[in-house]
């Protein structure tokens, strides 16, 4: 019997990733959808902008959770995809190409190409070496953006227009932009959920535990990881497109290694491997940043130790903490 013929029955035995809690996800998206209503009833108006930004980063965190939480690949250069998406958007808008239906294919193609090339090299390594190579590729893109003097260089690129969709301007209205981002976040969540629940996702998760065992059943682990890496990068590039439209500014800082570290912490904060946890982690991270920066200009001195303490004393992130609290109530 060939390896290929044994692949199907063995794949059925591959353990699925941690089960998602659809009720929590539904409640989370429902609360997000009601935020503009709450703002109209008296909630601080800046929350709309803050949550919009948090949802954009949640898209990037979701994309990272696909390879980190499911595949066990710690990428320290994931912000490069966000920066590529933002710069492709900014440059095309600057050159007079504002139509999103033209910009998005370019963003996705560039991120896919970058993911294919860097992933092919990076995925030949493991552990700390993989982390360092992804960091190196991320820094290469960062310094390339700094060298683009025609598009602002180190000072960044200011955009005087936003993208349009078939001639309409949904990004100019704050509420309209909020619901566009929410729709994209929901679509990305649904897509990644389908991927994780598929045989492809189960094999990716199983390879995290024992790549050799998966390989002998007939699956090409390297190819599966590369495809996941490319998909992850394309989704992160989509968040870069939205970020450029929200801030109307593009900077090399979008793809710096500290930004990649923040994305990793968002995933860890919410709960590694929990898709709605990545969204919760991004929201919590941005809200904590906003609150602490309002207290003092040296807020990072407070935020850093908070991150360390959280990682040391919690397991499973905020989602794991909520599960423990829920289990405690039933005891």
From TrEMBL:
Signal peptide: none annotated. One of its GO terms (molecular function) is branched-chain amino acid transmembrane transporter activity. It is found in: Cell membrane. The chain crosses the membrane at residues 22-43, 55-88, 100-123, 130-151, 176-198, 226-244, 264-287, 299-322. It comes from the Bacteria. The keyword Nucleotidyltransferase does not apply. Pfam families: BPD_transp_2. This is ABC transporter permease.
């Amino acid at each position: 019997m060939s390896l290929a013929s044994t692949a199907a029955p063995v794949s059925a035995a591959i353990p699925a990733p941690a089960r998602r809690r659809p009720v929590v996800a539904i409640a989370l998206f429902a609360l997000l959808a009601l935020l503009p209503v709450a703002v109209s009833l008296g909630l601080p108006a800046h929350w709309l902008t803050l949550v919009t930004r948090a949802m954009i980063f949640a898209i990037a965190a979701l994309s990272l959770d696909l390879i980190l939480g499911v595949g066990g690949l710690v990428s320290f250069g994931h912000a490069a995809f966000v920066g590529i998406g933002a710069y492709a958007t900014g440059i095309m808008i600057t050159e007079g190409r504002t139509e999103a239906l033209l910009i998005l294919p370019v963003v996705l193609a560039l991120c896919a190409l970058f993911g294919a090339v860097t992933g092919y090299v990076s995925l030949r390594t493991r552990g700390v070496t993989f982390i360092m190579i992804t960091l190196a590729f991320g820094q290469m893109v960062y310094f390339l953006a700094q060298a683009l003097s025609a598009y602002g260089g180190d000072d960044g690129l200011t955009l005087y227009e936003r993208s349009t969709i078939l001639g309409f301007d949904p990004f100019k209205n704050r509420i309209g932009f909020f619901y566009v981002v929410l729709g994209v976040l929901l679509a990305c969540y649904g897509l990644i959920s389908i991927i994780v629940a598929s045989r492809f996702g189960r094999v990716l998760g199983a390879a995290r535990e024992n790549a050799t065992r998966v390989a002998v059943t007939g699956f090409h682990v390297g190819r599966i990881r590369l495809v996941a890496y490319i998909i992850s990068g394309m989704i992160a590039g989509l968040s870069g497109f939205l970020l450029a439209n929200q801030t109307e500014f593009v900077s090399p800082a979008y793809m710096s290694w500290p930004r990649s570290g923040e994305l990793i912490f968002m995933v860890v904060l919410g709960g590694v491997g929990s898709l709605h946890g990545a969204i919760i982690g991004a929201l919590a991270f941005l809200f904590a940043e906003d609150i602490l920066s309002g207290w003092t200009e040296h807020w990072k001195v407070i935020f850093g130790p908070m991150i360390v303490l959280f990682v040391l004393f919690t397991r499973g992130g905020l989602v794991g903490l909520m599960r423990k609290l829920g289990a405690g109530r039933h005891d």
